[in-house]
Design a protein that fits this description.
Layout lengths: L1 H10 L6 H15 L6 H15 L5 H17 L6 H21 L2 H23 L12 E2 L2 E2 H33 L9 H6 L24 H21 L1 H4 L4 H18 L5 H17 L9 H13 L2 H30 L5 H94 L4 H30 L13 H10 L4 E6 L7 H21 L6 E8 L7 E9 L19 H11 L3 E7 L2 E9 L7
Parallel strand pairs: 3-4
Antiparallel strand pairs: 1-2, 4-5, 5-7, 6-7
């Protein structure tokens, strides 16, 4: 693939040579076919070749030159031989493809209208003015037999299908190129039809995005080719007696079968190309005078594929083809039936019967073709719904993973807060006891032993708490008991032992708190007492009140109030109250209260500092 990309990149600036080279080849074919030199024929061929050569670089001029060539041929009185007509038709196909690929919006749609108008004009040159003659029977209208009009109509249909298919392929190439993104070249056809210059962008992603040629895996490609071979084998076996006879009719039937097989093989790789080839095969079938064949099941397969694999434009092209195909098929079958039975000699008396036959055939054809297209659309919808379900499941899994990550981060944050509370409280008690023992060792030696016992007990308790928290970090479920409201008394005793007098008071019933609220209450009291011990006046008592809450302003729960006296302000800002420096203590307490479904306020009051928290009972806890 890298070698192929390098070769294509090297050839990209020279792609403009392709159309002039094709023009030279067409003119050379005209020269070597042994045609007698004719000035009018040579001029027409030169105009057609000029339209081909300029279709990439000057699509507007190419369209005008092609019109000049067609008008010049129509104005000539002498007829040109069949090889010349074939070369002209090929030139028109190449020019239409180039105009649709490289022209602007207005030029592109003028090219589409030209394809429709050129079809009957060139059909007239092929049949009435050319070498293709049809049997002459039926009524004479305007100097021409009715059978000649039918032949002209069939030839116009054939050329219209070929011209519109070439225009459609060019339109799809231009549409894909306009929405291309960076990446490898999706197909050689798109690369050749792209303007000259640097390396081209690739096609868009799968789905409803413009994509003329879809990338297939090796098993998919093998399956499609094997399906086309099986289709040919089935048609040959089914239609053996009538299709393989060695006459012109048998050869044309085999040609139609092969063209349909190509359409079946390409149905998934390129639904647009498959649809164009199927139209070509159907037109050849009608112009060669065949009725319904077994190989016509390929039309149903192709319509199914356009709805299933095609993008929006190809999908609607398939739907329009189903309607137009039903109309053309019913008209063709009605006319051929009338010709076979000699109805044109009794046209007036058989007109009603032909109309009824046409209506019946149209309804049947539209139903069969439409059902094939609708079935493909239903399968496409089902696949899209299944893909949407898979995408939804994947999104839900991603959301669950994200929620799990958030829960883990919240749990880590909670553990970090617990670690801060444990370490800060324990170290505050240890420092206070150590300082007190150092100052009191001469006056009261027994106080040293008491202080050391308190330090040891506090350190052991802190070590146990730290181990529990570290265990929580290693696994999802915590090990060991979590602190509760009953452990507040132990914390108060530790603070008292550290030298800070604490007055503890309980009011009302304090039952009904959930585990999260009890842990939050314990940590709030612990952090408030630690702040009072570190930053407050330790010579004055601290008041801790746990009161039952309830009333019009607040629901049932508990109100925690911790009030301590403040030290005399110093030049260095402290970490309590409304002073500038704020540590982790107050935000941590406030977050704990919020997560437990309550609220917390803290700030200076009179000559002290007050922390007030409200925590609801279990019924008020938020998830």
């Amino acid at each position: 693939m890298p070698d192929r990309t390098r070769v294509l990149s090297a050839l990209a600036p020279h792609r403009w040579v392709l159309e002039p080279a094709l023009a030279v080849v067409l003119f050379g074919v005209w020269l070597v076919t042994g045609l007698p030199f004719d000035l009018a024929g040579a001029l027409a061929v030169l105009l057609y070749c000029a339209a081909v050569a300029l279709s990439r670089v000057l699509p507007v001029v190419a369209l005008e030159i092609a019109w000049l060539a067609v008008v010049a041929e129509l104005s000539e009185s002498s007829s040109l031989p069949l090889p010349h007509r074939l070369i002209s038709a090929v030139a028109v196909v190449i020019a239409l493809f180039g105009i649709a690929s490289h022209g602007g919006t207005v030029v592109r749609w003028f090219g589409f209208a030209s394809a429709i108008l050129w079809a009957p004009a060139m059909a007239y040159l092929f049949t009435v003015r050319g070498d293709l003659k049809f049997p002459q029977f039926g009524p004479v209208i305007g100097g021409y037999y009715t059978s000649q009009g039918v032949g002209l109509l069939m030839m116009s249909l054939l050329l219209a299908v070929v011209f519109v298919s070439a225009w459609l392929l060019g339109f799809l190439v231009a549409r894909q190129r306009a929405t291309a993104t960076s990446g490898p070249v999706p197909s050689l056809l798109v690369w050749l039809a792209s303007p000259g210059g640097g390396a081209e962008a690739a096609g868009a992603v799968e789905g409803d995005s413009p994509r003329l040629v879809r990338r297939l895996t090796r098993p998919q490609l093998t399956f499609d080719i094997a399906g086309a071979v099986a289709y040919v084998f089935f048609c040959l076996v089914t239609d053996f007696t009538s299709s393989l006879v060695p006459d012109a009719s048998g050869r044309s039937t085999f040609l139609v079968l092969i063209v349909f097989a190509v359409a079946v093989a390409l149905r998934r790789m390129s639904p647009a190309v498959s649809l164009a080839i199927a139209w070509l095969a159907a037109a050849v079938q009608m112009t060669t005078g065949h009725n319904i064949l077994v190989s016509d099941i390929a039309v149903l397969i192709v319509l199914y594929a356009t709805a299933l694999y095609g993008d929006k434009v190809v999908r609607y092209a398939g739907l329009i083809s189903a309607g137009v195909g039903a109309l053309v098929a019913s008209l063709y079958l009605t006319l051929t039936s009338a010709l076979a039975q000699g109805y044109f000699d009794l046209l007036s008396s058989q007109l009603t019967g032909m109309a009824l036959q046409f209506a019946f055939l149209f309804v049947v054809s539209a139903t069969v073709l439409g059902l094939s297209w609708v079935l493909g659309l239903l399968v496409r919808t089902w696949k899209n719904a299944r893909a949407s379900r898979h995408a939804q499941i994947a999104a839900e899994l991603d959301r669950n993973r994200a929620e799990e990550v958030v829960v883990v981060e919240q749990e880590r944050t909670r553990i970090a807060r617990d670690m801060h509370d444990v370490v800060a409280h324990s170290l505050a008690v240890v420092i206070a006891q150590a300082d007190g023992a150092r100052y009191a060792r001469h006056a009261d030696p027994d106080a040293v032993d008491t202080a050391l016992e308190t330090i040891a007990a506090t350190a052991r308790s802190a070590l146990v708490d730290v181990r529990v928290l570290l265990a929580e970090l290693r696994q999802s479920q915590p090990e060991g008991p979590q602190p509760s409201l009953a452990d507040v008394d132990q914390t108060v005793e530790q603070v008292r032992a550290a030298g800070l007098p604490v007055v503890m008071e309980r009011r009302g019933e304090l039952d009904g708190l959930g585990s999260a609220q009890q842990i939050a209450a314990y940590r709030i009291v612990q952090e408030a007492l630690t702040n009072a011990l570190r930053h407050g006046d330790t010579t004055r008592p601290v008041s801790v009140v746990l009161a039952q809450a309830g009333g019009a302003d607040a629901g049932p729960g508990i109100v925690i109030t911790v009030r301590n006296s403040m030290k005399t302000p110093t030049p260095e800002p402290l970490a309590t109250g409304g002073l500038p420096r704020i540590g982790h203590g107050l935000p941590g307490m406030r977050e704990r209260a919020t997560l437990a479904g309550g609220s917390l306020s803290a700030g200076p009051a009179d000559d002290g500092f007050v922390v007030t928290a409200f925590l609801p009972v279990v019924s008020g806890v938020r998830a």
